[in-house]
Design brief:
four-stranded antiparallel sheet; 10 helices; 10 strands; binds adenosine-5'-triphosphate
Length: 235
């Protein structure tokens, strides 16, 4: 479904990605793990078109999307939930969700999808008239994921959904990520520093160090890998 081929990205003179190759199959959850500053966010930004690579190619459903404008990439069915949530703080929960559906005009389906989201996250239903900025961090993460779902993405890019959240909330959010994947066949590309959790929800993983993929394997094998254990699982 998604293919990154030898992606190189620069911020001025700093090379953040040094030839990244990743493949994601339709319907799977894959994770990209790595330390702070390894280049994980930059990889997602290359896919969503926000930080276009200097060289390399990206294909989505067989079509080249390298260098395409972010709004066109969204319209093809790729939606990113950025690190730090970035919901609209002064809009209500319901208005935030409406914003996620701005490219759609199938009104009755939009309504149905909003109900589906309220089933996934009942707390958002309770708070539908409340301003987004007044929600807790965990609720804002739920809203950010939900807003992306309102675009009906084929591929969901999640950047550090666990960041700054209490373990119980993180567990709940990861359960919902699995559910979204299982119930809608939404393909999920998950970037996480919390490797332990990420490898439990994903079937496969990539390990990134200093702008390079250093290892890729099934999550099961990565969880058992001695180097991964030492560097990322704190074991
Ligand atoms: P984190 O987990 O902290 O988000 P990351 O693995 O997502 O880290 P990136 O944010 O992709 O890493 O950063 C990769 C490299 O690019 C780092 O060295 C970072 O300092 C640099 N970088 C990222 N964004 C910019 C920017 N806007 N300008 C200059 N350098 C940047």
């Amino acid at each position: 479904m998604l293919k990154l081929k030898n992606i190189q990205t620069f911020y001025g003179n700093i090379q953040a990605l040094k030839g990244v190759t990743i493949e994601v199959a339709e319907g799977e959850i894959i994770t990209l793990i790595g330390a702070n500053g390894a280049g994980k966010t930059t990889t997602l930004m290359a896919v969503s078109g926000i930080v276009p690579p200097r060289s390399g190619e990206i294909f989505f459903m067989g079509e080249p999307i390298t260098g395409m404008e972010p709004d066109r990439i969204v319209s093809l069915g790729i939606c990113q939930v950025p690190e730090g949530r970035r919901i609209f703080p002064y809009l209500s929960v319901a208005e935030n969700l409406d914003m996620g559906a701005f490219l759609r005009n199938d009104k009755s389906e939009i309504k149905r999808d909003m109900e589906y989201i309220f089933d996934l996250f009942p707390i958002l239903a309770e708070r539908r008239h409340q301003a987004g900025g007044t929600l807790s961090g965990g609720e804002q993460q739920m809203l950010a994921i939900s807003r992306a779902l309102m675009a009906k993405p084929k591929l969901l890019l999640l950047d550090e959904p666990s960041l700054g959240l209490a373990p119980l909330i993180v567990k709940k959010i990861f359960e919902i990520i699995s559910k979204i994947n299982a119930e809608n066949n939404t393909t999920i590309f998950l970037v996480e520093q919390n490797a332990n959790l990420a490898l439990k929800v994903a079937a496969r993983g990539y390990v990134m160090e200093n702008g390079r993929i250093t290892l890729t394997d099934s999550s099961k094998n990565l969880l058992a890998n001695e180097e991964v254990k030492k560097a990322y699982l704190g074991l």
